[in-house]
Structure formats: structure tokens, C-alpha cells
Amino acid sequence: MMLQAQLHCLCLFTLYLTTGYGQEGKFSGPLKPMTFSIFEGQGPSQIIFQFKASPLAVTFKLTGETDDIFQIQPDGLLYHNKALDRETRAVHKLQVSALDAHGNTVEGPVPITIEVKDINDNRPVFLQPKYEGSVRQNSRPGSQELDPLKNPSYKLVVSVEDMGGQNDHSFSDSTSVDIMVKENIWKAPEPVEIEENSTNPYPIKITQVQWNDPGALYSLVDKEKPSKFPFSIDQEGDIYVTQPLDREEKDAYVFYAVAKDEHGKPLAFPLQIQVKVKDINDNPPTCPSAVTVLEVQENEQIGSSIGTLIAHDMDEENTVNSVLEYRIVDQTPKVPRDGLFLVQSYSGTFQLAVQSLRKRDTPQYNLTVEVSDKGFKTLCFVQINIIDINDQIPIFEKPDYGNLTLPEDTAIGTVILTIQATDADEPHTGSSKILYRITQGDSEGRLEIETDPETNTGYVKVKKPLDFEAVAVHNIVFQAENPEPLVLGVQYNASSSATFRLIVTDVNEAPQFSQQVYQAKVSEDVAKGTKVGNVTAKDPEGLDISYSLRGDKRGWLKIDPVTGEIFSVAPLDREAESLYRVQVVATEVGGSSLSSVAQFHLTLVDVNDNPPRLAKEYTGLFFCHPPKAPESLIFEATDDDQQSFRGRHFTFSLGSETLQKDWEVSKINGTHASLSTKHTGFEERVYHIPVRINDGGRPPLEGTVSLPVTFCKCVEDRCFQPAGHMPGIPTVGVTVGVLLTTFLVIGIILAVVFFQIKKNKGQHNVESAQASEVKPLRN
């Protein structure tokens, strides 16, 4: 044992020498509270620190959480003789005391903290050798492909690595996981059919939904939000209809079932519930009107279709409940016999059962028709009128309506002639109604004919302006016809035609422009005298025309009075007016000097002829004085020229190179820039900073603007100005200076006056003395 201790001391001494311990510095020092960090797992006999004590101390004592690991030599050398384990103890709290020769404490105890630093020396271990779990089909993202019928379970191997698996010294562990795939029972049920107007007791269960786990709270949601919602759901997921449904009112319902947890949070997506209302035969047929009126001509052939009675049934279409059957149950009168008409059983179309009814036998028949569906019957009434056949043609009262002379400016809508034809067919029928039309002499449709439905009188009117220059004489042919076709063998002839001669007289008319608005487009920088457009007008009488302008308020244009060509006579300016509107007057030369007016619109195309400028007047720009740091302010530029579709693109720079040491201009975007100071050594005054702005146009134009920037004392981030100090009114300092100067001048004046008075008084005293000295001589 003695030899082993000596060897241990020798090893410590060797380590002590080779590592430099014992030298005052990093690894040795006075006895004081200290903290050391040591990696776990290091070999034994590792020196930590050597403490130095006062001369009275001859040895050291170590106490606390040593765990037989930490020891201290009499000379203050602290070391550990075993490897540290952070998982056993992460921090060791020790105390070191310095003792004299009698074992008395002369220093300390001093707290020493040993922090054990971790190294990767423990393998990760799963808490169980095997895990089990389950997942619902389609219950969460990533599980849509799971199908319990195809793969009811999965066996997984899960591995774990510490240090992120990025180190050669990392450890790992594995375990198995068994996953069971459960069926997802939260599924939309099949569509439900409910028979309308059911007499069963309500509520009636119609379907069910179920969440995968117990405890879900169910509710129904209808996005249409109807006034009444005839469905409910209980907390078992059973869905009920709560009252009778009417298919004719609503034939289908779509709503949603929702499952939520106890906190009201949805557990999954809503399920769509579809309910179709099944029809029953609960509606009788209805007639289209109180009486259905049909017509048949006297000469109709047997089997001809007369018309159709269309009844209605509110039950579901194309089902046995809405199939209607028609049957004639009565005919009034029964002359010349009963059964004159047939009706098709399922279409309701009426046909003639005998040939050639005669109106003189009876002009009207009334039929009672039974319309029935599977369970109901309804009586509808049909009136059939026998109408005369169209075997008579219209005949004009006279074949020629003579001549009529009208001026060409006769107003549109004027009735110029009344014509009359008669028809021997039954009055107020399609066989006797007369329609007039013009078949010759009015190819341009300047006339029209209106027919009085009561008298068949025709009124010939002016529909379009008459034109002497186009057609001076119209030889009109009228034709009278019936809207109902004539019977076979009867044709219109000359008796249904008439003639009429319309003579149009000339009226002096104003010139007529080829169009009412003329448009032209030129660049705003065209030279004076450039042709910018032309207009044309003609006089109906063939007179010469003189052109002139009206409304040329800027004096930009002139017009050739003969040709109608328009020229520029002054510089054009798009910025002043981009669309220049003037009137062109065409006046006939000679005659009545009539005139007409058209519009001339001149669009000016922009050129880059305006330099950039400031978007507004910047008069209140200031920085607080004295400035604490460089500052910036923002300004905006604009241009009177037309903006391109890409917007403005200005460039900015200082207008003077001598200012570059003090100021800087930086572009922010196409229209904005910032002016910044480069230092804080500015005086308290106004600086006028020139800034060059270039528009980058073709050709580019540049403008120089001045930004006034004031450096001033500030109060609450505003320039301070003494109360009552207005422009033109002297400040307090100036006022005081003026007053002092005034007082000084007054003082000087008073001093001069006082000196003069004193001088005069002295002289007067001398003279008095001299006078007193002379007096005795005189006596």
C-alpha cells in the first residue's frame, strides 16, 4: 500500500510538472469560490486546480459531494481519481478549507462547483420492445389509400439514432410497431326516398350516421336556410323527418350531418344527406282556362286537326300520376248530329269527324271534355267557332287614285292618301280582314300603309323623307290581300289592285355632309400649315359649297373654303387640349345660302416637349437643428406629357457637384426620390438644393428644380417660432437692439446739450466776475 501511494503521488507529480501546474496563472491561484467544467468519462488522476493559501496554512481539507472521486493534496492540488459520470451526478458541490499546523481553519471553507459536461456515452432505448396502434380508414391526411379489406394490419420497424445520425459515434435502437387499419364508419348514407304526404306518425327515422368513436355531438346544417326545415338528428346519429312533405312544394332536400367533440370542434368533414320526395297521385288535372276557344273553317276536310286542349297535372312529370286522358262527354248543340268532333285520348288534339261543317247550321259548338289521371277526373270546356272560308277577294272602291303633288320636305308620318277596299267574307275574321302593301313604285320604302281593323280603311303615310333629286315621280301600285289564305281555286286579280301617282316637287335643301363627325389624329408638334383633315358636303340642288370653321377658340386651324381641307395655323399643344373639337359649316353659294354643321374632332398625339417638374410646391421642408444624425425627406416629380402605359420613369441627381459632400439624392421609384443629408454640420438657416430630373423620353428632357430645406429649432417635432413673430415684424433681439441704439443717441444728444449749457454758464460767470472787477474803477 505504501508503494502504491508513492507511485500515485509520483504520477501526480509528473502530471503536475508536464502540464505546468504549480505556476501562478490559469491552473493555480488563491483560495476563492470557483466553478470548473469537466467532461465525463475522462481517466483518473486528472488535476483540476492548485490552490495557494496564506503562509499560516500548511495543508488543505476537502468536504462536500466528493463521492470518493475528488481529493486534494496538502499543497492544495485538487484532482479526481475516477472518471466522472454526468448521468450519476451532473454537479458536485465541494468545499475547500486551508488549515494550519494545528488543524485549525485559517481560510474557507470556500465553495467549489464541479459541472460534469455530457458526452455521448448512452445508447437511446425504446421504453417497450413492441408497440401497437390503430388508424381509421380515410380519417386523416396521408391515410386515404388504407383499405382494411385489402390490408387489415401493418408491421413496422422503427429505428432511433442519437446525435441526429450525423456522427460516427452515434448510438441507435429499434423496436417493432403493429398498426391495425380500422374501417371508417363516418360515411355519407345512400340517398333516401320519402313518400310525400305520408300518414304515418312523425317523426319517422329515415337514415343514420355514426362517428368512429363514442361521445360525438351530432347536428344538421342546411345551407339553403329555408323557413322550415323538416329534419332532425338525435345523439345516436339517427336522422328523422319531422312532418309530412309535399313534392309539389319541394321535390328534393340536400343538407349535411356534422359531428363535433365536446368543445364544439368538428371531428371531420360534414356528410351530405340527400332526400328525394317520392310522388303520389294527390293532384287532380286542371284546365288551362275557363273555356278553350278553337276555330274551324267551313271547308275543312274530315280528320283535320282543329286545335289542342292542354290540361295540367302538378304531380311528377312522366309518371303514371301525371298521365292525362281526354274524353268528350257532351256536345251542344247536337246538330246536324252528335259526335261531330273527336279528341285524341292522350294528346288532347281535336279533329273533325264529319266533312264540311256549315256555319248556317250553327256558328258555334260547346264541348264538355273529361280529363282524368289515375285517380282524379276534371271537366274542361271547349268552344269551337265555325268560321267562314276565304272565298272572296278584296275589291278596291276605285282602280286609280289619281295624282298627288307633295314637296320633298313633307313631314314624316303625314297621311297623304286614304284608300279603301271591301271583302264579302264574314266580317271581323281573317277571311275579311284586309292588309295593304305597295308592290311597285316605292323601292326605297318611303311610304307605308296602316289599316283600320274595323273599317279596313288604308292610310298611306310618309315613312322616310321624300327626295326630289332621287325620284321625282312615284307610280304606285297598291295590293289588297287577306291574312287568311284563299280557298283552292280562288285567286287575287286586278280588282284587288289600284294605282296612284305621287309627284315630288323640289325644295331648296341645306348641304349634306358625308358624315356628321369627322375624326383625325396628328402629332402635336406638326409644323404650321400641315394638313390635318378634310370634310366633304354636297348640295342636293347641285350648288357650290363654301366651308368655314366655328368654335376654333384657340385659333389653331383654318379650312379651305372650296376643298374642305383643314390645316394647322398655329402650334398645337396636347397638354392644353388633347382632343380639339370644332364645328365645320357648309354653306351653299347662291340660292338661299342654307348651311349645315358637322363636327371635326382632332386628336393630338403627345410628344415629349415638357421637362419634368415637382408634383407640388414644397415650402414646409425642414430638419430640426442641431441635427443628431443624417436625415432624409421624400419628394415627388411629375411631367405634363402623356404618361405611358408603363408609368413614369424619372431619374434624379443633384444640380450642383459642390453640394455632393453635403447632400445626396436617391431614386425610390419612377416618380419619387429622397433628399438626404450626409453629415450633421449644418447651420440654422434655409438651404436651396437644386435637383435635376430627367424624364428619359425621346428625346429626353431635363428640368432643374429647387427644394428649400430649413434647419430650425424644433418643439414637438415642429419648427419653433416665437409667439407674435410674423414676417415683417422685428424679433425681440432686433427690437432690443433698436431701443438700445435709440437710447444711446438720446444720451449723446443730452450730453452735448448738457455740456453746452455748462459751457455757457461758465462763460457767463467769467463775464460777471470781470464786470464786478471793473465797477470800482467806474465809481
Describe the 3D structure.
The protein is mainly β. It has 7 domains: 2-117, Immunoglobulin-like, CATH 2.60.40.60; 130-182, no CATH class; 192-278, Cadherins (Immunoglobulin-like, Sandwich), CATH 2.60.40; 292-387, Immunoglobulin-like, CATH 2.60.40.60; 395-505, Cadherins (Immunoglobulin-like); 512-605, Cadherins (Immunoglobulin-like, Sandwich), CATH 2.60.40; 613-719, Cadherins (Immunoglobulin-like, Sandwich), CATH 2.60.40. The chain is built from 2 helices and 52 strands. Strands 1-3-6-5 form a 4-stranded mixed beta sheet, with helices on one face. The longest helix has 47 residues, at 732-778. The protein is flat, with a radius of gyration of 60 Å. The protein starts with a helix and ends with a helix.
Describe the secondary-structure layout:
Elements: H1 2-18, E1 28-30, E2 34-39, E3 46-52, E4 59-64, E5 70-72, E6 77-80, E7 91-99, E8 105-117, E9 130-136, E10 153-161, E11 172-182, E12 192-195, E13 204-208, E14 217-221, E15 231-233, E16 238-241, E17 252-260, E18 271-278, E19 292-297, E20 305-308, E21 325-332, E22 341-343, E23 349-352, E24 364-372, E25 377-387, E26 395-396, E27 400-407, E28 415-422, E29 435-440, E30 447-451, E31 457-462, E32 473-481, E33 497-505, E34 512-513, E35 517-523, E36 531-534, E37 537-538, E38 545-550, E39 557-559, E40 565-568, E41 579-588, E42 595-605, E43 613-614, E44 621-624, E45 632-638, E46 651-654, E47 663-667, E48 672-677, E49 686-694, E50 702-712, E51 714-715, E52 718-719, H2 732-778
Parallel strand pairs: 1-3, 2-8, 9-11, 12-18, 19-25, 27-33, 35-42, 44-50
Antiparallel strand pairs: 3-6, 4-7, 5-6, 7-8, 10-11, 13-16, 14-17, 15-16, 17-18, 20-23, 21-24, 22-23, 24-25, 26-28, 28-31, 29-32, 30-31, 32-33, 34-37, 36-40, 38-41, 39-40, 41-42, 43-45, 45-48, 46-49, 47-48, 49-50, 51-52
